[in-house]
Design a protein that fits this description.
7 strands; 45% strand; 4-stranded antiparallel sheet
């Protein structure tokens, strides 16, 4: 399940039987990869591509009662506008 607002996407996944320490979440640009470690009892692997880059510093993940919730902050485009002094 994926929802969004102006600042972030929220992704929720049902992962019953998966321990917090067995999960790995990687973010690179617009790609989010979620997988379990090889030694985990239950294996899971998924990747999602979002339409806008993700701000990793403002992103959070939590696993409660078998539900993984990712809050993926949208990276705000940096302005390249500059003021030029007229001489």
């Amino acid at each position: 399940n994926v929802t969004q607002d102006d600042k972030a996407w929220t992704v929720t996944l049902d992962l019953p039987g998966v321990a917090r320490e067995d999960l790995v979440v990687d973010v690179e640009g617009t790609i989010v990869r979620i997988e379990t470690r090889p030694e985990a009892k239950r294996q899971f692997k998924a990747a999602y591509e979002l339409p806008q880059e993700i701000d990793v510093a403002a992103t959070a993940a939590s696993l409660e009662h078998g539900v993984l919730t990712l809050t993926l902050a949208k990276k705000q485009p940096a302005s390249n506008a500059r003021r030029i002094e007229v001489k």
